[in-house]
Amino acid sequence: MNLLSETCGGIEKIGFSAQDVRNVIRNIQRRVFDSGDAECGLVLLRDLQKQSDGNFLYRVDVDEENRVRGLVWVDPRSLNAYKNFGDMVTFDSTYRTNRDEKETTYRWVLKTWLEAVDNKPPITIITDQDIALSNAISEVMPNTNHTYCTWHISSKFPEKLSTLYTQYSEFKTDFKACIYKSLSPTEFEGRWEDLKEKYDLENHNWLNDMYAIRRQ
């Protein structure tokens, strides 16, 4: 939308809004996946594969009753992007977070994706703190450096650190300086020790848990 806005000379000149796009995507998802009739979606994928001379990959996972429960597709543009910029990828598993994603599902998705990219795993993959996904990555891509998304972690700060924010006016500044302004592991460790001593954080369970996985 930002690109179209610049191209067209303003957001009001595009002719549709970001919400319009979201509505179309929602309607497609409901029609193709939630209705139980995925054939129209599969026909589209087959056509795209034919048009791409085999460079468009898709795989379908079905249950015992032949109902679609998993679908992966990788288009030529994505394959080319990964070939040139595949050192690091991000895996967003937050879509439909109310649904229970299983470790077996993640393993299938990752294996299918690796098939599409000639079994060349990325150097680094970034995800949220999903245990099932972490386990799947460890199994399918054991040599890939798995790190956690800073945005997902920092979004928990207001909830997990609310007492410290309220009790100490300088805590937020010191805490963020420790995380975002430390230019080396040594500098971070020093600031972390100072932070623990200054604000008595020895028994703060959530911060201790985060510190234990700091390398991720």
Q: What Rg do the Cα atoms give? A: 22 Å
Question: How are strands sequenced across the largest beta sheet?
Answer: 3-4-5
Count, helices: 12
Q: Please report the distance between the alpha carbons of the first and last residues.
A: 32 Å
- What's the total number of strands? 5
Q: What best-fitting shape do the alpha-carbon axes yield?
A: globular
- Briefly note the structural class of the backbone: mainly alpha
Proportion in β-strands: 5-15%
Uncertain residue segments: none
Helix and strand succession? HHHEEHEHEHEHHHHHH
Q: How would a crystallographer describe the biggest sheet?
A: 3 strands, parallel
Helix content: 55-70%
Mean pLDDT: 87
If you had to describe this structure to a student in words, what would you say it looks like?
There is one protein chain. The protein has a three-stranded parallel beta sheet with strand order 3-4-5. Strands 1-2 form a two-stranded antiparallel sheet. The chain is mainly alpha-helical. It is built from twelve helices and five strands. Helix 5 crosses helix 6 and helix 10 packs antiparallel against helix 11. It has helices spanning about 1-10, 20-35, 40-50, 75-85, 105-115, 130-140, 150-155, 155-160, 160-165, 170-180, 185-200, 205-210; strands at about 55-60, 70-75, 90, 125, 145-150.
Element layout with pairings:
Elements: H1 2-8, H2 18-34, H3 39-51, E1 57-62, E2 68-74, H4 76-85, E3 88-90, H5 103-116, E4 124-127, H6 131-140, E5 145-148, H7 150-154, H8 157-160, H9 162-167, H10 171-180, H11 185-199, H12 205-212
Parallel strand pairs: 3-4, 4-5
Antiparallel strand pairs: 1-2
